[in-house]
């Protein structure tokens, strides 16, 4: 099983990067031993701010195509969304906007697990709701979603794993659903 995973942020020290990294470790160690994980950093896909004028003048950047192709090559996708001012981060939104110009179904029918985390009790629920509501429109086969907040009370950053047993179980259930769906698509 090949999985594309990333935190939807450009922050190098993101709590969302911590939980998406943990999710890929649990997947590869417990759910699908030896899973092929492609954990990417959105900083590697930094592009000019999208505008139709820029697209008409210079075309779609090669990095947008590379991002889109990574989704296409995966059997499943895991994203942890950071929330900036109640919405997507500018870094993620820009990459997504460019990729959507290649094909509006950016997620290409891939099974997805989406998460969000915040230092506060809301767990970045606004961005998680936006992502959950829009995912099917953009070609995602959403299998599970959950939020984590307040992060420091539910995730042991030193050990890199959930200290909240319920969240640890929720993650495992979500990863099993993701694996099952990816396996069904591979057989079908």
Give an overview of the whole structure:
This protein is an alpha/beta fold. It has a single domain, classed as Rossmann fold (3-Layer(aba) Sandwich), CATH 3.40.50.360. Helices cover 46% and strands 19% of the residues. The protein is built from 7 helices and 7 strands; from the N terminus they run βαβααβαβαβαββα. It has a 5-stranded parallel beta sheet, sandwiched between helices. Strands 6-7 form a two-stranded antiparallel sheet. The longest helix is centred in the last third of the chain and has 23 residues. The mean pLDDT is 97.
Find the CATH superfamily: Flavodoxin domain
Q: So, CATH architecture?
A: 3-Layer(aba) Sandwich
Radius of gyration: 16 Å
- Number of beta strands: 7
- Strand order in the largest sheet: 2-1-3-4-5
* Highest-level CATH class: Alpha Beta
In helices, the fraction of residues equals 40-55%
- Protein structure class: alpha/beta
Total tally of structural domains: 1
Give the DSSP E fraction (strand runs of 2 or more residues): 15-25%
CATH topology: Rossmann fold
Poorly predicted spans:
none
**N-to-C order of helices and strands:** EHEHHEHEHEHEEH
Overall body shape: globular
For the record, give the distance between the C-alpha atoms at the N and C termini, rounded to a whole number. Answer: 15 Å
Largest sheet: 5 strands, parallel
Count up the helices: 7
Mean pLDDT over all positions: 97
Offer a concise description of the structure.
By secondary structure, this protein is an alpha/beta fold. Helices cover 46% and strands 19% of the residues. It has a single domain, classed as Flavodoxin domain (Rossmann fold, 3-Layer(aba) Sandwich), CATH 3.40.50.360.
């Amino acid at each position: 099983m090949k999985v594309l995973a990333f935190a939807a942020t450009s922050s190098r020290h993101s709590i969302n990067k911590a939980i998406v990294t943990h999710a890929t470790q649990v997947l590869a160690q417990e759910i699908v031993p030896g899973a092929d994980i492609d954990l990417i950093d959105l900083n590697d896909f930094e592009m000019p701010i999208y505008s139709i004028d820029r697209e008409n003048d210079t075309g779609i950047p090669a990095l947008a195509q590379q991002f889109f192709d990574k989704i296409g090559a995966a059997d499943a996708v895991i994203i942890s969304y950071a929330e900036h001012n109640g919405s997507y981060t500018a870094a993620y939104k820009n990459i997504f906007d460019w990729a959507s110009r290649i094909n509006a179904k950016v997620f290409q029918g891939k099974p997805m697990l989406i998460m969000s985390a915040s230092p506060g009790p809301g767990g970045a629920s606004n961005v998680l709701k936006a992502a959950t509501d829009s995912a099917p429109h953009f070609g995602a086969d959403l299998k599970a979603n959950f939020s984590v907040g307040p992060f420091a009370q539910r995730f042991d950053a030193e050990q890199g794993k959930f200290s909240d047993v319920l969240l640890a179980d929720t993650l495992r259930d979500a990863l099993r659903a993701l694996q099952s769906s990816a396996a069904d698509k591979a057989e079908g």
